[in-house]
Amino acid sequence: KMTEVKLHGFWYSPFTLKVKWTLELKGIPYENIEEDRFNMSVQIFQYNPIYKRTPILVHDGKPLCESTIIVEYIDQIWPENPLFPIDSYERALARFWIKYADDMVSAIRLLALSSNSEEQVKAIEKIWEHLRVVEDRCFNDHEKKFFGGDTINIVDIAFGSMVKFITVLEDALEVKILEYEKFPHFHLWYNNFKNVPIIKENLPDQDKMLAFLKFSREKLLGSS
Amino acid sequence: MASSQEEVTLLGVVGSPFLHRVQIALKLKGIEYKYLEDDLNNKSDLLLKYNPVHKMIPVLVHNEKPISESLVIVEYIDDTWKQNPILPSDPYQRALARFWAQFMDDKCVVAAAKFVLKVDEKEKEKATEELYEALKFLENELKDKFFAGEEIIGFVDIAAVFIPLLQEVAQIQLFTSEKFPKLFKWSKDFYNHPVVKEIMPSKDQLFVYFKARAQSLAAKKKN
């Protein structure tokens, strides 16, 4: 049965990354359509009139928006190598933590667009608050290498996409955020996560991201 | 296999639309539970224990295992107890239902809260604009009597309970029937649905909740 999967995404976005990693981990063939964040195609506004943003998955002509909804849909349609837990309680916990990971984006954006050191410090503290919660609550099972156990699951992907962005900000702004001393388990987890072959192959290039961040800061703040 | 013999506890504050979402889901499935009323300005040890991350109600505790976030809880209920399904079984329809429920939380609830809690005329005007922009999408989406269909209520209806809570119970007119005819009718129909009507708080209870909410928000702003 031939099915057609298209992903309208933005290479720089953690939300697009979440969907990409999901498709790649499941070995689902898809057409990747790059959208320019500052000049999106008309289709984006047609498919997503409410949020007007990527990622958007189009499966056999049917569009779906919002990364969390997209990844859960993918997991249902292609159940091999499940990324969501089978057990309903574990699944509820996964949904909780995915939302928590997604919620980190506002503090991360604040940092990305901070125009002075006061804003920067405030944003970093907000990110630290989130990292502290995860560090304290999510790594109590010492048998587990990943949120998914021996292999990664959707929660790993959700946090991984955010942490990748954080590492770009660390380099760009020359600040330390996911410090080993402060967040030893989280730090270790990310080192393991980013080295998982399919994750590694699909990590956006750090230098390319740095260049884009600089460009968008200049564009949005009128300075670098 | 889950049965009504198992222990289900629900922590909440009467008047909270998030709590009422969960109660509707439990009632639809005929699940018996123990209800514990909490206090937003003096949170119980139990609440802090079961939801240490957000310290917010509702929290469902099923056989000692806590779940928080109202939509996560409703999905859990649907996953665990199979009678009277709340989400569609078709994966695409399911995804759409999740999208609209999420939209409720991302855009509508926030706008409605601003509308209700703002005193300043200018801010109220802005909040109204925001709310109407969000509601326009809902109005267009509504094809039958309910979001889930002609005779059944589902995930999106449940997520939208804050609308009849405000329109029907509090009688705070978010919108008129001229502006949003379908939503206006939906609000009345949903409010009058037997399962929903039993759950709805009284006007007084709702105002007590609003007051407590405003207080705790003011306290947060100070800190």
UniProtKB/TrEMBL annotation, chain A:
All copies of domain GST C-terminal, residue ranges: 87-212
GST N-terminal domain mapped to chain residues: 3-82
GO cellular component: cytosol
Biological processes annotated in GO: glutathione metabolic process; toxin catabolic process
Alphabetic keyword roster: Cytoplasm, Detoxification, Transferase
Keyword check for Ion transport: no
Record keyword Manganese present: no
GO molecular function: glutathione transferase activity
Protein function: Is involved in the conjugation of reduced glutathione to a wide number of exogenous and endogenous hydrophobic electrophiles.
Protein name per the record: Glutathione S-transferase
TrEMBL record, chain B:
Matches recorded under InterPro entries: Glutathione-S-Trfase_C-like, Glutathione-S-Trfase_C_sf, Glutathione_S-Trfase, Glutathione_S-Trfase_N, GST_C, GST_C_Tau, Omega/Tau-like, Thioredoxin-like_sf
Superkingdom of the organism of origin: Eukaryota
The reaction(s) this protein catalyses: RX + glutathione = an S-substituted glutathione + a halide anion + H(+)
GO molecular function per UniProt: glutathione transferase activity
GO cellular component: cytoplasm
Gene Ontology biological process terms in this record: glutathione metabolic process
Membrane-spanning parts: none
Keywords from the named record: Transferase
Pfam families xref list: GST_C, GST_N
Catalytic activity, EC: 2.5.1.18
Start and end residues of each GST N-terminal domain: 6-85
Domain GST C-terminal: 90-210
Family membership noted in the UniProt record: Belongs to the GST superfamily.
Protein name: glutathione transferase
Annotated organism of origin: Cajanus cajan (Pigeon pea)
